[in-house]
Amino acid sequence: MRAVVLREPGPVENLELTDLPLPEAKPGWVRIAVRAFGLNRSELHTRLGLADGVTFPRVPGIEAVGIVDAAPDGDFEPGQQVATMMGGMGRTFDGGYAEYTLVPREQVIPFRSDLPWEVLGQVPETLQTAYGSLTTGLDLNAGQTLLIRGGTSALGFATATLARDLGATVFATTRRRDRLETLAAHGVEHPLLDDGDVAAQVRKIVPDGVDAALELVGTPTLPDTLAATRVHGTVCFTGMLSNEWTIKNFYPIGYLPAGVRLTAYGGEADDLPASVLQRYLDRIADGGVSLGPARVYPMEAIRQAHDDLEHNRTAGKLVVLTGRVEGAAP
Description:
By secondary structure, the protein is of the alpha/beta class. The chain is built from ten helices and 15 strands. The mean pLDDT is about 95.
């Protein structure tokens, strides 16, 4: 099978599209014929050497969609559509950047959909994280206000979709003025240009601050996000687009505004119920919702895709299709 191997941390040139033996099916695991996989910041951290617990060489990729190729336990049918994510994928065992991946049975989620694979590849990890951030991380309710820092990321778009579907009013930030219209077109009621003082912009609209905020940029913007949130409101730290996730000399009383709650979220496959995945796939199919824009690449362009991810060249999700491109170099 073809697979992308990261020999060691470093530049995009360390990602090599090569041939590997087909992983051997075994009890308790499911072999999936991968049709598409999404790119995530986690894989960028792995490539840059910022992730703990990763052994090399390694096939990266914390998610994939495809069809069941082999399931020794007999609880999945060959050809059945499935999604998989997390659980050590691409870190402690080979992940989704391949034509086949072997994953523990408990992190396989079945679904049925006629959506094209490039759309399906956009969904699993992004939906899981957006859903978990809004439910477990923020306990967001209809009628509340939500601020999303990093609104034009794949997770930002997806969270805006789910929040509006819930009945919340959404504020979302971008550092690029030309992307404000993109946020508005996605249904964000209050697109905000990140000028370093988003809290002031928010409080001009809601003087007491927003009810909830999702921090996707990281620790550099966290104080501003906290300042934009009302007393007894909640900020959930979920993403690190800045690649910065620690706070030096953290003194809670001096750092946290009085009465503002700070939580965090990071989920696994079982945090996305199959019923939730199916519901949103069906709603995407009937045009009821969109998780935002996506850019699609062939496997042969994995280095370009990673470079685009690293330098934030595209808005929304980056998706790779595993099908061969005729005439492309390996």
